[in-house]
Design brief:
2 domains; two-stranded antiparallel sheet; 10-stranded mixed beta sheet; Spore Coat Polysaccharide Biosynthesis Protein SpsA, Chain A; 12 helices; alpha/beta
Length: 328
């Protein structure tokens, strides 16, 4: 297969929400750096989303079932014949120069990936997210989510964990780190990938000049039982795959507190089911763990928690009260 080193392939996983796909594909066609190819990976949509994508000229790969975000994205990456791949949710809108700015920043700094400043849909002042922060508990937070835009989010910076909402990657990165972990299906699979980037020393770049807007939770909703169950399960597997036993108390405290949040949203049962699934799969997930945890991972967790300590959310305030100290 001939690889175009400076070209971009867009990979868009979809599951229903037909009304979103045509606007996104037109948005991609209007980019100042339009993708050389667009691959829509359909997770068994029943509302004609795949056909709508084909009508817009995209190549559609049909999974035949709802395999989840990670397997769908991996399938698209495997089909990629360009030096760069942009992974996009179906509910994003990109500024016209979004891809061009990401590519320029990543190529210019030898970064392995890049993401931009993403606002909540219809807003130019409230952030959906920027880059991911991970705690010793295996719980994660998207920096800036739900907050007003501020100077701290307007500075370009190196990162290791990018939301895969609208991110650009060197295709060669996946030969170094592997693809998304498919057992995670959806939720925290991007965070788990980010931890592998830390362990491999493959940094990306946050590019605040590149702007997009995200509808958010367009498929199931933030506190849908399936969403909560998968996040709850994957928090356990994240710890099993990457964290040492010295973070056990932080994991117990932080994940219990997250369960309290789920309970407040009427999803306590889904949280318990997810934890049970996670514990049942603990041994298999732990089998991938390397006891030689690089100092870079502990250093990264420490920097993440330093950022999280400034949060006014009650979750993080309680978490740090219960888990004194820091990553070592």
């Amino acid at each position: 297969m001939t690889v175009a080193p400076d070209a971009v392939t867009a990979v868009v996983p979809v599951w229903n929400r037909r009304e979103l796909i045509a606007p996104l594909l037109r948005n991609l066609a209007e980019q100042t750096l339009p993708p050389a190819a667009v691959l829509v990976v359909d997770n068994g949509s029943a509302d004609g989303a795949a056909e709508a994508a084909e009508a817009e000229g995209a190549r559609v790969i049909r999974m035949g079932r709802n395999a989840g975000f990670a397997p769908a994205v991996n399938r698209g990456i495997r089909e990629c014949a360009t030096g760069w791949v942009a992974v996009l949710n179906n509910d994003v809108t990109l500024a016209p120069d979004y891809l061009e700015r990401l590519l320029g920043a990543a190529a210019g700094s030898d970064a392995w990936f890049a993401t931009g400043k993403i606002f909540a849909a219809g807003e130019d002042a409230i952030l959906d997210g920027t880059f991911d922060l991970v705690s010793r508990a295996g719980t994660a937070w998207r920096a800036g989510h739900g907050e007003p835009d501020a100077p701290e989010f307007s500075t370009r910076r190196p990162i290791y964990s990018a939301p895969w909402t609208a991110a650009l990657f060197r295709t060669a990165l996946f030969a170094k780190t592997g693809l998304l972990e498919e057992s995670f299906q959806s939720y925290l699979e991007d965070v788990e990938f980010g931890i592998r980037c830390v362990r491999s020393g493959c940094a990306g770049v946050y590019v605040p000049e590149a702007v997009a807007w995200h509808l958010g939770s367009a498929t199931l909703g933030s506190w849908h039982p399936d969403t909560v169950r998968r996040i709850s399960r994957n928090q356990v597997w994240l710890v099993a795959r990457h964290f040492s036993a010295r973070y056990a108390w932080a994991a117990i405290a932080g994940q219990f507190l997250w369960g309290c949040v789920a309970l407040r949203h009427g999803a306590g049962g889904a949280w318990l089911r997810g934890k049970w699934e996670g514990l049942r799969g603990w041994r298999a997930a732990r089998s991938t763990y390397s006891p030689m945890v690089p100092p870079a991972l502990d250093d990264w967790l420490r920097k993440n928690e330093s950022h999280l300590r400034s949060s006014r959310l009650w979750y993080w305030r309680l978490y740090f009260l219960l888990t004194p100290g820091e990553a070592k």
